Amino acid sequence: MNTNDEDGIGVVFRKNLGQYTVHAHGREIDCSLSSLLHKQLIFPTADPASLRHAVQDVREIHHVDPVAVGDRVRYVEAGESRGMIVEVLPRNSRLSRPAPVPGQRVFEQVIVANADVILPVFAVANPTPKWGLLDRYLVSAEAAEIPVLIVLNKLDLAWKNPSFDEEMEIYRRIGYPVQLVSAATGEGIEELKQTLHGKQSVLVGKSGVGKTSLLNAIQPGLGQRVREVSSGELGKGRHTTTYLEMFKLDFGGALVDTPGIREFGLWDIAADELAYFFPEMAGYIGQCKFGMSCRHDLEPGCAIRKAVMAEAISPYRYQSYMNLRREL
Ligand SMILES: Nc1nc2c(ncn2[C@@H]2O[C@H](COP(=O)(O)OP(=O)(O)OP(=O)(O)O)[C@@H](O)[C@H]2O)c(=O)[nH]1
Ligand SMILES: [Mg+2]
Ligand SMILES: [Zn+2]
């Protein structure tokens, strides 16, 4: 890549229909994508990190966006607050999921690039939490090697769910930090802000758990903007956030609000490596009677099943492991 001192470096905060909003030196620049970049990224050698999944068919270009929110990019100025992205700088991390294209193969969709921490958000109640989804987020985060903070919102509704704290204990015991908050009352918000400080963070979670409300609680006005941007879409009111956007935090850092993702498939995880992404299981791998070929299902002498019996591994988590394994 031909680099030029006059090129700018910025961060992608938003994208919409082939247009990218890049923040650089306190400015917002509306960028398009150079066709050169598009071509480079579809060939296997362009992005060493995605060798195995590089797209090689020109026909497929439309289904793969080489630039994600959170990406650091090099751009060339093209007049009044406009520019063209010519290079995506190497990513520290990427949170991905499979984006199915009807009738074709499945592609990697990078949800967010360069996230320093992922915050899976659940509500204590309304909607009732399903921890299987949390396990999905956790496995994705482990595979992407991105730290996690579990956020449990709507603490003001704790009376509706007498078992949530006990259930959270399972995750605390594994070593996952949990922050209990209420966007409604402000409880726990200060502690949450300390985690976000100076980092690029991502809120993920089902629709209605209060991600956008948390944004508002963290910095008044942020979530408001989300609602304005997406009002009119579908007109359902419940699905407030319709696309992903990153927001700059006044106290330092940036936070990505994602729309409630209904399906969160696992990307690039093989059945045989799944147990590595359950930290409480990882230590038992190789200790089963059938060694590395054990699927930890019904095989005799399985060290992981033994650990479940001995209550060293939660049966819920083991069940989650089996459920996810069946998908891979
Ligand atoms: N009781 C209570 N309600 C809350 C709290 N936080 C959010 N809500 C409500 O939950 C509903 C959904 O909140 P949103 O912030 O739009 O949820 P979201 O996660 O952004 O949803 P999507 O954008 O659809 O993904 C709204 O009616 C909020 O007022 C809370 O801490 N306590
Ligand atoms: Mg929202
Ligand atoms: Zn086993």
List keywords for this structure.
Ribonucleotide Reductase Protein R1, domain 1, 328 residues, 6-stranded mixed β-sheet, 5-stranded mixed beta barrel, binds zinc ion, alpha/beta, 25% helix, binds magnesium ion, binds guanosine-5'-triphosphate, 3 domains, OB fold (Dihydrolipoamide Acetyltransferase, E2P), Rossmann fold, 9 helices
Topology, element by element:
Layout: E1 8-16, E2 19-24, E3 27-33, H1 35-42, E4 72-77, E5 82-88, E6 94-100, E7 106-113, E8 117-123, H2 131-144, E9 150-153, H3 164-174, E10 178-180, H4 189-196, E11 200-204, H5 211-218, H6 222-230, E12 245-248, E13 254-257, H7 279-282, H8 303-309, H9 315-327
The chain binds guanosine-5'-triphosphate, magnesium ion (MG) and zinc ion.
